[in-house]
Amino acid sequence: MKPVQHKTRSRAGAAIFVRDAHEVAHARAAERRVQFLAEIGHLFHASLDIAQVLEQVLIKSSEVLGQSNAVFLREGDELHLAALHHPDPAMATQLRAFYSQNPARVGEGIVGCVAESGQPVCLSGLSSKDLSDLSSPAYRAILSHSAPATFLAVPLVLSDQVIGVFCSASRVPGRRFTPDDLKLAQAIAEQAAVAIENARLYRELQERLRQQTILYEASVALSSTASLNDVLNTLSLHLCLALNLTGVGISLAALSRDRIVPTQVYDTSGLIAVLDEATGELYQRLSTALEVASQAGQPGKPPVLALRADQPQVSPEEQALLEAFGAQALLIIPLVVRDESLGLLALYDSRRPRQFSAEETALAQALAHQAAVAIENVHLLESLQATYDELQESSRLKDEFIQNVSHELRTPLTFVKGYIELLREGAFGPLSDEAHHALNVVADKTGQIIRLVERIATLHLMTQQKLNLEPLDLNRLAQEATERFRPVAEQAGLDLRLELTPASALVMGDPLQLPQVFDCLLENAIKFSPQGSQVALRVHSRPGVAWVEVEDNGIGIPPDKLDKVWTPFYQVEGHMKRRFGGAGVGLAVVKRVIQAHGGHVWANSQLGQGCTFGFALRRLDAGM
Predict the structure, then answer these.
(1) Among candidates 101, 388, 368, which has minimal Cα distance to 242?
(2) Residue from 78, 72, 66, 36 nearest 54 by CA
(3) Inter-residue contact 355 to 329 (CB < 8 Å)
(4) C-alpha to C-alpha distance for 111 and 72, rounded to whole angstroms
(5) CA nearest 251: which of 332, 366, 349?
């Protein structure tokens, strides 16, 4: 019995050994799976370049699953090959070429059925015929070269939506996928789905950032552009870059806004073609249709027209427009500002019949709106420039006319003044008292005309003629001006007072022009001061500056018109011109002469309480 007992113990020990070996093998396999999942998890998190990551994951998966692995991603009803690993490089190239031309379709073949049902499939011991019966028709032609014996397909699911399929296949005889392999494949699919979604979100974020950057750069460029050609070039460049376009066609409404001009075609290099007027007529019809649609649609959102060469229903006009651009895809957007159409944009791609996404269309519309505003601003700027040029020309002609008239008046006025003096001196015989009085009046009025002509000439010369500067004492100039105007003030019943500064008031000035400033200020003050009031001429000085003020007790000037009194020929009120006379030249002469000397002028006034006009110049001790 002892040998029997020994044999029984040996069998029990062997069973325990086998069980322990299986457990150890199972534990090691589980450890390898955990380590494998950790490694591919690291791969998925190491980069957002999902194509490269998937290739690396598939290579890694060939160590624990089948030798051939692939990931298909769903786009609509099609499944496009996103990544592939095959031990035979030639077969890998063949498969990539095949799927690039023949994407799998949802509901067809094993991959398509997994994508449709969302359930995994694990098949073992398959023959070529078995796979042929289960595969899509297009795939059967190459099965004879690569038919696997074991096949596994697991859906990539994200938020209950199948976004793709992970496949693994093996041609190793006897190799069968186990439930643990299926769990491992599902774990791979789960991580792949999350990584693909993260990469998609990152690409979307990057694309939106790129588009926003382009939109911002276009906005800055368009807002700083004053030329229509620059606006169109800038718009086309940013649209081509933002949407990966072949080119942009731009047709602007004529200035009359009642027709469409020939279309200009741009790419990233600038203007490349001008389409004929027939295309413009097509644009006109489309523009009318879009305007009608805009009126019927949502206000503030102009409609767009998207055309593709592969569309089953395309009107003859639309087909002609596609052919005019040589386009496979065309997106037409109105240029609208303040509900007024300025023209049309045609965004075209001549490489493929692409579908413009909602985001791309929104970006194009945003750029079109900015461009429409810039184009309208250019039109307004051109209109303003034309108006400004007309005003400048009118001003030039006016100045020229005034200068010519003043020049022509000088010679006869000189003769008139000379003959008046001869008559007053009795050169042509004795005169009665009445005649002397009449000649005095004529001489006075002639002097007024001569002073007016000289001041008009001064206004013109101050912008052209250089000053003859020399040291001048403002105290002395003020005394001389007071002496000249004291008789005039006394005749008007005014008290003319002079206040000089004890300090130096020496400045660099033109001896012909600065005296005119004193004369204009005193004449203005006396003219508007009521009888019995006072006019004061004051000279002030301090280190670095000397200034002069003329104060009266006249009628005053409204605050809103005070700055305008320095404008040539300006009259505060029409009735003032008839009541007080004058041509509105004196204060303009004061300002131009003082500014030519590097000084400045000012005016203070209160209605009914008089005015104070003044000017300041650098004192000679301050340097020039």
Answers:
(1) 368
(2) 72
(3) yes
(4) 8
(5) 332
CA atoms within 13 A on the CB side of 587: 25
Amino acid 470 reads E
pLDDT tens for residues 7-52?
555 555 555 545 555 566 556 656 666 777 777 777 777 777 778 8
Q: What is the 3 state secondary structure string of 8-24?
A: HHHHHHHHHHHHHHHHH
Comparing 132 with 369, the larger pLDDT belongs to 369
Two tokens at 398?
A: 């006016």
Burial class from Cβ neighbours inside 10 Å (0-12, 13-18, 19+) for residue 473 reads middle
For residue 456, count other CB atoms closer than 10 A to its CB: 23
CA-wise closest residue to 370 among 219, 211, 266? 219
> Residue 203 is which amino acid?
R
Q: How far is CA 130 from the centre of its chain?
A: 63
| pLDDT tens per residue across span 563-622 | 888 887 777 665 444 445 556 778 888 998 999 899 999 999 888 888 999 999 999 875
Residues comprising the chain, all counted: 624
- Helix residue spans in 244-327 (DSSP H): 277-296, 316-325
Dihedral angle sign, alpha carbons of residues 48, 49, 54, 59: negative
Sign of CA dihedral 558, 561, 565, 569: negative
Six-digit token pair at 168? 């693994």
Please report the DSSP string for 595-609 in residue order: HHTT-EEEEEEETTT
Q: Is 327 helix (H, G, I), strand (E, B) or coil?
A: coil
pLDDT in tens, 412-430: 777 777 777 787 777 777 8
- The DSSP-derived string for 569-594 is T--S-HHHHHHH---S-HHHHHHHHH
Burial class (CB in 10 A: 0-12, 13-18, 19+), 308: buried
Q: Is the pTM of this model over 0.85?
A: no
Cα separation, 27 vs 534, in Å, equals: 118
Q: How far apart are CA 498 and CA 72, in angstroms?
A: 102
Residue 219 to residue 209: CA distance in whole angstroms: 15
Q: What's the burial of 590, exposed, middle or buried (CB within 10 Å: 0-12/13-18/19+)?
A: buried
